[in-house]
Amino acid sequence: MSEDLAALAERARVIRRHIVRMITRAGSGHPGGSLSAADIVTTLYFHELRLDPRRPDWPERDRFILSKGHAAPVLYAALAERGFFPVEELDTLRQLGSRLQGHPDLRKLPGVEMSTGSLGQGLAVGNGMALAARLDGRDSRVYVLLGDGEVEEGMVWEAAMASSHYRLDNLVAMLDHNRLQIDGPVAEVMSPEPLAEKWRAFGWHVLPIDGHDFSQIVAALTRARSLKGRPTMIVCETVKGKGVSFMENQVEWHGTAPKEEELARALEELEGKSDVYAG
Amino acid sequence: MSMPAKIATREAYGRALARLGEENLDIVVLDADLSKSTKTEIFAKQFPDRFFDMGVAEQNMMGTAAGLALSGKIPFVSSFAVFATGRAFEQTRNSIAYPALNVKIAASHAGISVGEDGASHQSVEDIALMRVLPHMTVIVPADARETEQAVRAAAGIQGPVYLRLGRLSIPVLYGEDYVFRPGRANILREGPDVTIAATGLMVWEALQAADRLQAEGIKPTVLNISTIKPLDAETLAAAAARTHAVVTAEEHSVIGGLGSAVAEVLAERCPVPMRRVGLADTFGESGRPDELLRKYGLTAEHIVSAVREVMARR
Fold first, then answer.
1. Chain B residue with the nearest C-alpha to that of A162
2. Rounded to whole angstroms, what are the CA distances from B76 to B68, B107, B151?
3. Which of A83, B145, B225, B280 is deepest in the core (most CB within 10 A)?
4. What whole-number distance in Å separates Cα of residue A118 and Cα of residue A115?
5. Which domain range does residue B304 map to?
6. What is the mean pLDDT of residues A168-186?
């Protein structure tokens, strides 16, 4: 699937509506980091990834790992919109018996490539998938989305070293650089900066972009396909809570569910010209 | 019994893995800069394309193995037991055990028989760490022959497996006709007086202890509990019911290992007087393996005195 830029923007708007609504229904969850990643994840699922929702285990598919697993709502919204399961199921988020666990569970929900939630582990798994694709001679590509608080985990750098050592040019990491983590600004809690320089020093191609500009996201993903011999890191500058004015850049919205009244205001802001997807 | 040949289980692992690699092209092997010690170098030399040295970075190694498993490979991941189970515990928990991925953690240098390297390298807690994880199978082979078969069996089990291996050369106690069955205790002796349930290199010590006891007219049942999880509760409970006294023997802390696993089962199914031979909530130290096994109470003699004590409490 390869939607044009206008369609991507429209799709991301719908995905944001799903995010705020399902977290409100659940009464808990992580809106801030789901909204900051919405444009990145939308572009992956509706422009970049080679997938077949009718065959979630198709060996030739591309893989996406949401390493920042607490942003599960953005993944679930994208998977539902892409046809992996009914959109109505989004309202079961975090409920007993639901396939939509608080953090993604690959054994429960089709389309989830890796169970994540414990930060720092997704890139290593991406390494394994990229090595396997090479061993099997498949041209599958592997995409891993990391948070900027997440890269404080030492394991991320073990993995970054290995992706570069094994020259995994079928692997793309994307950094949701929204500059906030639970305890406050990343710069104050434990600064991992300078991030672009660190990834470069670890042997990666680094592409810095605006993570809310679809033309830049598409261009970077396209460019990453042509970069050989090394893995590519796309550093996406984003805004935590993007799309809902009262959540933007507010650390309080890292892990707080909106109340019904706040949901109504958020949905009002996320209203589109045509509300065909709004559900 | 005359002294049989001695082979380290890590050595048997390395050879068996290379043979398995010939037959099964899905087998891939990862090591964290210890391939000469864990013996995965045998596989590495034969199948360089399917061997990945991940450097001194065990956490990424576990995650990489998870990714390979998700793509249909059967990764065997090796390091020393301390690092394979401890350093990367939470990676194993969340990225391997929780999603029930087909990763085989084959760790060498378990226990104090590591010797001179000392306590930092002597794992006395790995069985506890691995058996507490849902989905995980835990296998501790008693000799080289059982190791060969356990490697093959591990590859055939769908899901994560922990294989505990040792550095020290130990007697090969099984003959060529031995058949390892995962999840089943192997009954080495049958006697009515006491049950000795042992694992790993302590199985040989248990047999030596049994010889001494038999000379005194005490007839023990000796079980090799090579699969610690899932534990063969039937065989254990039946042996306890028949003998009314149980001694466990392991080269591991008495907390959380075989002794704990057996106590859990017997407390619920057939409570009988019990003694656990193992490390008494302590780390090891540097020394020759035989010196350490003696100092920390892991010999046939210690099993014999535990048997006397437990029989007196019947």
1. B54
2. 10, 10, 9
3. B225
4. 9
5. 186-312
6. 98
Question: What is the mean pLDDT of the segment spanning B254-274?
Answer: 98
Q: Measured between alpha carbons, how far is B75 from B155 in angstroms, rounded to an integer? A: 9
Q: What is the CA radius of gyration of chain B?
A: 19
In chain B, the number of structural domains is 2
- Which residues share a beta bridge with A119? none
- Identify whether residues B156 and B14 lie together within a single domain: yes
- Residues on A contacting B at a C-beta cutoff of 8 Å: 59, 105-107, 113-115, 117-118, 121-133, 135-136, 154-155, 158-159, 161-162, 165-166
What superfamily in CATH does domain A5-269 come from? Thiamin diphosphate (ThDP)-binding fold, Pyr/PP domains (3.40.50.970)
CB contact under 8 A, B63 and A128: yes
**Residue B87: half-sphere exposure toward Cβ, Cα within 13 Å:** 23
Instruction: Please state, rounded to an integer, the average pLDDT across all residues of chain A.
Output: 96
Task: Measure CB to CB from residue A132 to each of B49, B63, B67 and give the nearest one.
Answer: B67
ipTM over 0.95: yes
* Domain-located, residue B286: yes
Q: Is B58 a catalytic residue?
A: yes
B13 and B143 both lie in a single domain: yes
Q: What is the pLDDT of residues B99-120, one digit of tens each?
A: 999 999 999 999 999 999 999 9
Q: Does residue B176 fall inside a structural domain?
A: no
Instruction: Name the residue type at position A266.
Output: A
* Integer Rg of chain A from CA: 17
Which stretches within B98-232 are classed as H helix? 126-131, 144-156, 202-215
Mean pLDDT across B17-28: 98
Q: What is the pLDDT of residue A277?
A: 46
In this prediction, what percent of chain B has a pLDDT beyond 70?
Answer: 99
pLDDT tens digits, B38-67: 999 999 999 999 999 999 999 999 999 999
Q: Nearest CA of chain A to the CA of B193: how many Å? A: 48
Q: Dig out the tokens for B68 from the structure.
A: 């390979």
B91 to A115: CB separation less than 8 angstroms, yes or no: no
